[in-house]
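// run 5 | inverse folding | seed 20
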């Protein structure tokens, strides 16, 4: 490719590194993506800036930000470079086993839905390295090149990542039968609203009661006040505590389907418009050099239709 300003050819290696920096927002992350050292990436970007005679990135506290010149250059080179990577990636994949696909997401969703959906792929030679954690941390890891795909509890922002809706999770207010009886059942909650729940211990996965607060606001139109009786940083632990009779909680319906069917949990309310959260399947922008990544993505999107 030739630059219109200098009239000279732009080195494809420099452009490949430039695109990795532009998409990841970090020289360090780009170095991992292209298999170079961070000082080499820095030197290459300085060389490209000298050739163009323009600054491409500005440094910030969390990495680098592109200048308008960089945005324009990325728009011009992304499609040709991605097409070239697709061709050369296919050739290199034939020389040896594919690298594992690095997937991360919320522990509960990964354990109950994602791994059962992807398990058959091991018979097709797919290798997986699975991580769990909070969405903000996982998306930072995706930008930095630590993950290939992340299941995010919200749509990520920024040009470095692309995301598509994966599934909707409905939240349900639940209790063990004994607590439901003490409260007066779904009829009383429907009639009295949150007043019927006053005094019932609340079990949640964080002190700021994120899921429960959203349920109270969406369904009851009021603010949830008061501390939790139990906090467990894993929704499966919350589920176990509520089944054992610790109190009430708000849980994703997919997580407690079996308990609701068995009667060890009962819904305390069935609103016509329950709160719903959309989970997204996020990856880095561009066509990745990985023969199994598209397969994992395709299977997840297909299987999620039944979740």
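// decoded
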């Amino acid at each position: 490719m030739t630059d219109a300003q200098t009239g000279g050819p732009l080195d494809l290696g420099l452009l490949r590194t430039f695109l990795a920096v532009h998409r990841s927002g970090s020289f360090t992350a780009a170095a991992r993506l292209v298999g170079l050292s961070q000082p080499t990436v820095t030197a290459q970007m300085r060389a490209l800036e000298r050739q163009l005679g323009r600054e491409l990135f500005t440094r910030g506290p969390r990495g680098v930000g592109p200048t308008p010149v960089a945005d324009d250059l990325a728009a011009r080179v992304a499609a040709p470079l991605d097409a070239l990577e697709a061709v050369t990636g296919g050739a290199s994949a034939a020389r040896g086993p594919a690298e594992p696909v690095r997937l991360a997401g919320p522990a509960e969703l990964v354990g109950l839905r994602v791994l059962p959906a992807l398990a058959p792929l091991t018979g097709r030679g797919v290798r997986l390295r699975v991580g769990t954690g909070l969405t903000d941390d996982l998306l930072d890891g995706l930008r930095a090149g630590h993950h290939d795909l992340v299941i995010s509890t919200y749509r990520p922002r920024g040009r470095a990542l692309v995301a598509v809706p994966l599934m909707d999770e409905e939240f349900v207010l639940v209790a063990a039968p004994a607590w439901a009886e003490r409260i007066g059942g779904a009829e009383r909650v429907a009639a009295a609203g949150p007043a019927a729940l006053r005094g019932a211990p609340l079990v949640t996965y964080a002190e700021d009661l994120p899921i429960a607060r959203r349920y109270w606001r969406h369904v009851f139109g009021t603010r949830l006040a008061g501390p939790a009786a139990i906090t467990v940083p894993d929704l499966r632990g919350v589920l176990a505590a509520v089944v054992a009779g610790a109190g009430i909680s708000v849980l994703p319906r997919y997580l407690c389907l079996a308990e609701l069917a068995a009667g060890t949990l009962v819904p305390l309310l069935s609103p016509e418009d329950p709160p719903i959260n959309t989970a997204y399947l996020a990856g880095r922008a561009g066509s990745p050099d990985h023969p199994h990544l598209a397969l994992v993505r395709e299977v997840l999107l297909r299987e999620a239709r039944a979740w």
